[in-house]
Batch of 2 targets.
Target 1
Amino acid sequence: MSLVLLTKYFHLRHLSNSSHAEIILLMNRCYNFSAGPANLPLEVLEQAQADLVDYQETGMSVMEMSHRGKTYMAIHQKAEKDLRLLMDISENYKVLFLQGGASTQFAAVPMNLFSSNRSADYVKTGAWSKKAIAEAKRYGTVRVIASSEDKNFNYIPSISADQYSANADYLHITSNNTIYGTCFANLPTGEVTLVCDMSSDILSKSYDVNKFGLIYAGSQKNIGPSGLTIVIVREDLLGRAMDITPTMLDYQTHANSGSMFNTPPCFSIYMAGLVFERMLSNGGIKSMEARNKEKAQLLYDFLDQSNLFSATVEGSSRSIMNIPFVTGRQDLDEQFISEAELNNLKTLKGHRSVGGMRASIYNAFPKKGVETLIDFMSEFENSNV
Ligand SMILES: *Cc1c(COP(=O)(O)O)cnc(C)c1O
């Protein structure tokens, strides 16, 4: 072992109170707090590694085989079936495996859902919803019915049904705001076609899909590698896309072809399938939700009693996926981030619009990693206040 590795070993041993075997694993795999692309379950990576050059004795990798062949078709269909099971998606919803990221959906949603009114209500809760609003404005009328921009998006504004525009084709929300660490505790209610950007909290807790007209999510936060975008859309919303809608952005195109109109992102779908399978065998969304809440609570409890660190979001607006926090001093924040890095706690730098730190603790992030972060924060606090 080199001196650097040896130092790292004792650092980790001291810090995380882990066994020798756990430390050896950590020497290769850091605790990665990245907001996205984010960490994946180690078992899934190892399975992909085992399958990589020869998938189930086909003599080729999933990346190299025809997307119309039997082997890939089985992967594709099982991924959809497992996602339907996980989220309890009803028959009258289509599940689409698309490309272009959530950002492409910012345009696809209005193009597909603007009916004769060409009008929609949006809730502005951060940078992603701002982008969604700007894009929708290119195709029709957008009314922002609530916003939290006055406080740099550190809360979720309250919304009531009497704010909805009478002629809106849909109401758009961002369920979890990745950059600011806020999340809707309750969904908007009332007679409305609810459209949700669920990119950073899909599969983290149970959502009743029947309450939505459409859900979309990029895969790289809670599902798998980037390259796959999931759209879950109620069937009655199909077939009314604006004339100018490109064939590839029309949901009907992909609904008609089982997301096989053109070459799908095969490898990302295969990886997502492994994640779905693993979640199902670990108790599904209910168990995942319990683990996620436990992890987030540990960190919020620590932050709330700390004399140095504080969370930037209060109470019921708090996300269980992304937790921003600050010391209140920029130099200390920077020192913390670089010392954390040396302790294998990586990608903790906050988004430039919030500053400080952000711990993204998605589904695949282990509880042990949160505990290790808290131990490190406590040590840092003791030597810096
Ligand atoms: C990451 C993110 C996006 C952007 O996703 P892309 O797939 O990169 O386009 C949009 N919305 C939310 C809530 C996100 O977290």
Target 2
Amino acid sequence: MNNTDKISNLAVTGVQRLVPYKAGKPIEELERELGLTRIIKLASNENPLGPGKKSLAAIQAALNALALYPDGSGFALKQALAEKYAVDISQITLGNGSNEILELVARAFLTPEFEVVFSQHAFAVYPIVTQAVGATAVIIPALDYGHDLDAMCRAVTEKTRLVFIANPNNPTGTLLSQASLEGFIGALPGTCVCVLDEAYFEFVSSADSINSIDWLKKFPNLLITRTFSKAYGLAGLRVGYGLSSPQLADILNRVRQPFNNNTLALAAAEAALADDEHLQQTITVNALGMQQLTNGFKNLGLEWIPSAGNFVLVDLKQAGQPVYEALLRKGVIVRPVGNYELPNHLRISIGTATENQLFLQALADTLANV
Ligand SMILES: *Cc1c(COP(=O)(O)O)cnc(C)c1O
């Protein structure tokens, strides 16, 4: 066989047509391409403060153990999560980022005969994990940039094995009320697993406070996913978790790799849970930064979609891609969202006050010249 095309023809059908996830541009890549030195990245919803001191100390302390395999059960981290969220250890699944949990649930529950319901403008990983296992994505048009729960409910049939909902949603930042979500999940047939992706729940203001964990008692088909990548500033270590009924967690843990979380990640995440000061500071910086950015948008005559997360979609009323590229040339990396069917928007992650200011200045300069 000398034709590489033939190898790709051997892949399962879903994978043959798969378009890989497009991540935010790494700082190092832009440095290489443009020879720039002062680059700011507001593209992947990372914590602009970095990891907390307690996590860094835990990483340092764990370095000596690197010759040994990690604790494959993640016992200490699970115990800390169980205490913090008042769940049983048997309800927790640890993942290499919450992305891995999304993949595990797809692998464990889907075959090509099943359908998966999710929303337009939903997180790009949902179509990828669905297609990779050959299942059919049923994409429901968004309502005001967010989930149309009534339409999603109507789209659920006996063929629907999974529903994905991100709350807050990425990239739009929209937030569903807890009451509407609870009603939606309650109306699902028991044959359909609901994945409630709460990657940004720590940023949701207390007025809208999230109480989805309470529902685990009554919905055995509910899987809540959360992550240490966003509010906890540990994206580089890859730790996320699922909370569910013990039966659902047992299924996910069967397909999980035995050592999917490394030693440093486990130690850092456990320490992060005990670092409330860093979390509170993160939330404060985010709230101030959101205000700063939206004030800046207002001054530029731009509109935005109100966001409950640590990022905001600004409406440029013109193609986002050229503005994105012009910002890159000024050393500012943001996220184009044309692949989310939002060609006129850019997604901006909230940075420090200095980063936000540099971005707003670069945006103003760019818009004055296009
Ligand atoms: C960032 C993000 C995730 C997961 O990130 P991990 O780093 O894999 O934990 C999951 N869902 C949404 C909606 C996200 O934005």
